[in-house]
Design a protein that fits this description.
heterodimer, A: about 325 residues, Rossmann fold, Hypothetical Protein Yjia, Chain: A,domain 2, 2 domains, five-stranded antiparallel beta sheet, 9 helices, 14 strands, about 30% strand, B: about 550 residues, alpha/beta, Diaminopimelate Epimerase, Chain A, domain 1, TIM Barrel, eight-stranded mixed beta sheet, 18 helices, 24 strands
């Protein structure tokens, strides 16, 4: 049985920057084969220079990615796109501006072959608080935010810094479990949304410098010798106080086998690891340099671990 | 060639000449209604006495249905109420799960291909003392082929074990609010809501392609129109891709096609600018029997599915508020562009909050693009309150209400969804008329059966299936109801100058009735026997359609 395809939902109200983020991910897919489903009133909103070919409802994108629109029937579109037999490394769903990601997560749970990786909800720094008090849309926008693993507080360059900080605090209050990640033009590094590149069979696991234009992210690359209670570790890493955006690890179990640990914001999943995993356990944690609580991460991992190595490229530049 | 039809009675809906004995027709148009002497003045004629013992009404107008009704009949009818198929066969209602199993077993025995799914529709277990159907029930029909039965509400599906197995869902650990689990930890076979149903659809013959209309479906739908006295029917939410438009133009243009279809382009897959452009393009593709160029927007969900958007205090049983299917900004842009281009928009709103949003949005858009006679129409609009009807009047809106809901789901609305007070107010036909809001009433077929005279009966009597009279004050008179299913619905479709009454210059569209709806009494309106129709001067007998 093939491994399930990870699915990332990209939600948020109309105009929050979902399409910008999707285009940025396609532009930086870097060998990942992305399949994108967009719900749009209108032509597929993919930047023209990325498009290789279009055929009715399907757009082929440079680098082996594809994009379809799904109108009113997401589940049907998911069945169609996964039945095409093309390799898909990661599936992105850009929801409609009024959809509730939480209910989409439940639907995807019904489809064999897919697994939710994370829910990213964009919030327009200029308007999010107003929308959350809108006569008609208040519960919809709050419902969207409540389903987020990571909230991208977007367009921060359009509001004064003190308002960004206030909005971030306010979002953290109304959705305490989610991470809040400020951004300008939805410029979130690919690694945060999609995780690391699928590695070929690693001889020695090492951290690859995160390839992103935005400074300020930090990656912790840890080796863990002994067996670990992965479920417990996963729930600790998902705690907002650690300030992690994403973590991925292959962890040795007491019985000797390995499990894979994924954390995206508040979402933590532990599953069986590929059979080729060997060597010491290892864990990579990514977060904002200013937010990541390194000592708490170390404490969570506990036991024997090697001191962190952080590649220069990951160091905050600002 | 002029033909003068003699009738027992001609009910014209023309206030200055409400009744007549004869109607003269030339080239598909009405020359006039009156006495033979008066009509003889048009020159040479042939007197046709075939309707001498019939009552003629203007051809009935169904203002909100779906051509997909014609497709449903390929499946096994599992409904609780008797229902007539396009061939005129009356399928008796099924009163228990055992009845359903028996009918499905007969259909199963007729299928030879073991892989072919067995598909049913219109199941309504709320009438079976709320005993839920399970996969074990359906497994008694067969475990060899997949079975899927759509509920009458369209919101729930029941499947057998084979169908679950094919969809990869006959396993423990399924975690979804729309998929109840049995004591064995496996799905019971009841799939609630579109997200839970869709993964099963392709395995049980209910994938989306089948729910759209196709050529045989369109023909079947038109035959059903003849049986129900309908000469003009709105097909309210069609994507209208070009090949479908070509097919519909060809089929409706055939000499024997008996109905005028008004097909609305649903606001999906196009942005507002493209949508309005497409509507204008479609308008140019219209023909006499295929009218195009109107937009349909779905604003919220359904009341019985708890997805309608309600104003505070919301649902009676405390269910959370429903879902928006469009953002206010998108609604505003479509309204503004449509008003600027002179394109009509119909908006589906079930809940009163959705209605409020449409009223607010149109009020703003009209300040920008003042548009006399825009006829924007609220569809369903079931929970509108009196203040909202007054605003509709001020804004020049029409409303198409859904009285059939009282009969089919009124008891549930009373007990569960909106509670007694609002259940009595729902589909407030009398308030609409009292406030001068142009009114239509509809079936939403296949959600409820096509049949304007039945819909009129619902509006006149407001009885639920259990016999409760729900909202005495909102009943309307038989005369108002008959006007509403003819001229009223025609007005909302912009066709009141062409159809909806029997008067000089209009299309020769008649409902040919065995009984007189103005004499039979409001409580028997649904029992009026229908002989057939005349459409554009062509005669269609239900018995031979």
């Amino acid at each position: 049985m093939t491994a399930p395809i990870p699915v990332t939902l990209i939600g948020g109200y109309l105009g929050a920057g979902k399409t910008t983020l999707v285009n940025s991910l396609l532009r930086n897919a870097d060998g990942r084969r992305l399949a994108v489903l967009v719900n749009e009133f209108g032509a597929l909103p993919i930047d023209a220079d990325l498009i290789v070919a279009r055929d009715d409802n399907l757009i082929s994108i440079s680098g082996g990615c594809i994009c379809c629109s799904f109108g009113s029937d997401l589940v049907a579109a998911l069945i169609d796109i996964t039945a095409r037999g093309q390799r898909i490394d990661h599936l992105l769903i850009e929801t409609s501006g009024v959809a509730l990601p939480g209910s989409i997560v439940q639907s995807i749970g019904l489809l064999p072959g897919l697994i939710i990786d994370g829910v990213i909800v964009l919030a327009d720094a200029e308007t999010v608080e107003e929308r959350c008090h809108d006569r008609y849309m208040s519960d919809t926008v709050r419902g969207q935010l409540a389903g987020a693993d990571i909230i991208v507080l977007n367009k921060i360059d359009l509001v004064p810094p003190e308002r960004v900080a206030a909005s971030a605090r306010w979002l953290a209050e109304i959705v305490p479990a989610a991470r809040v990640l400020p951004a300008r033009n939805a410029d979130i590094p690919c690694e945060i949304i999609l995780g690391r590149q699928p590695e070929p069979r690693p001889i020695a696991y090492r951290i690859a410098p995160a390839r992103h234009r935005t400074a300020g992210y930090e990656a912790l690359d840890l080796e863990i010798e002994g067996p670990v209670d992965a479920e417990k570790l996963a729930s600790v890493l998902a705690d907002p106080r650690l300030g992690l955006l994403r973590a991925k690890g292959f962890l040795r179990q007491a019985g000797g086998g390995f499990v894979t640990l994924h954390v995206v914001g508040r979402r933590a999943v532990v599953e069986a690891a590929p059979s080729w995993i060997d060597g010491p356990g290892r864990l990579v944690c990514i977060g904002l340099a200013t937010e990541m609580n390194r000592s708490a991460v170390m404490a969570a991992v506990g036991g024997d671990f090697h001191p962190p190595r952080c590649s220069a490229e990951c160091q905050p530049k600002a | 060639m002029t033909i003068i039809y003699q009738a027992r009675k001609v009910v014209t809906m023309n206030p200055s000449r409400p009744l007549a004995t004869h109607v003269a027709v030339r080239d598909g148009r009405i020359l006039g209604a009156g006495s033979l002497d008066e009509l003889a003045g048009w020159g040479g004629y042939e007197l046709d006495r075939s309707f001498a013992d019939k009552v003629l009404m203007p051809g009935l107008v169904e203002g909100h249905s779906h051509v997909a009704e014609g497709v449903q009949w390929r499946f096994v009818y599992c409904g609780y109420f008797d229902r007539t198929d396009p061939d005129g066969v009356v399928w008796p209602g099924l009163r228990s799960i055992e009845d359903v199993i028996a009918r499905l077993s007969e259909a199963n025995a007729r299928l030879s291909d073991p892989k072919r799914p067995l598909t049913g529709w219109s199941l309504d277990p709320i009438y079976f003392d709320n005993r839920r159907m399970t996969r074990q029930d359906l497994d008694r029909v067969t475990t060899a082929r997949p079975i899927g039965i759509m509920h009458a509400s369209g919101h729930i599906m029941n499947v057998n074990s084979k169908a679950l197995e094919l969809a990869g869902m006959l396993r423990p650990g399924v975690n979804h609010p729309g998929v109840p689990l049995g004591s064995d930890g496996l799905p019971t076979g009841e799939m609630k809501g579109p997200d839970a149903m869709t993964p099963l659809g392709p395995h049980v013959g209910l994938d989306r392609g089948l729910l759209a209309s196709d050529e045989p479906g369109l023909r079947a739908f038109a035959r059903l129109c003849v049986r129900k006295g309908v000469t003009t029917a709105a097909d309210l939410a069609n994507l209208l891709p070009q090949p479908a438009v070509e097919m519909m133009r060809r089929v409706t243009g055939e000499d024997g096609f008996p109905a005028r279809i008004v097909s609305l382009r649903v606001a999906r897959e196009l942005n507002p600018a493209e949508l309005v452009d497409r509507a204008l393009e479609l308008r140019r593709l219209s023909s006499d029997r295929l009218r195009l160029g109107v937009i349909k927007i779905v604003v919220d969900g359904s009341i019985q599915g708890f997805s309608a958007r309600l104003l505070s205090p919301g649902y009676y049983n405390g269910a959370p508020n429903g879902l928006w299917y469009i953002a206010p900004e998108q609604l505003r842009e479509i309204f503004e562009r449509a008003l600027a281009a002179g394109v009509q928009v119909h908006s589906h709103t079930n809940g009163d909050e959705a209605t409020e949003l449409v009223l607010d949005t149109l009020a703003t858009a009209l300040r920008k693009h003042p548009s006399p006679d825009h006829r924007f129409t609220l569809q369903h609009c079931q929970l509108a309150n009196a203040a909202q009807f007054r605003r509709m009047r001020s804004l020049g809106m029409c409303v198409n209400l859904f009285p059939n809901h009282h009969f089919y789901w009124g008891d549930q609305h009373y007990a569960l969804t909106v509670g007694p007070e609002r259940a009595e107010r729902m589909n407030a036909c009398a308030t609409a008329l009292a406030n001068g809001v142009p009114l239509a009433i509809h079936s939403d077929a296949p959600v409820t059966p096509l049949g304007p005279l039945f819909t009129a009966w619902c509006a006149v009597n407001r009885l639920t299936a259990s016999g409760r009279r729900l909202g005495t004050e909102e009943r309307i008179s038989v005369a108002d109801a008959l006007r509403t299913i003819t001229l009223g619905a025609a007005y909302t479709l912009g066709l009141d100058g062409e159809v909806g009454s029997i008067e000089c210059g209009k299309h020769a569209d008649f409902a040919v009735l065995e009984d007189d709806p103005t004499e039979i009494g409001g409580e028997h309106l649904k029992d009026v026997r229908i002989w057939g129709t005349v459409q554009g001067g062509r005669i269609f007998a239900a018995a031979s359609i």
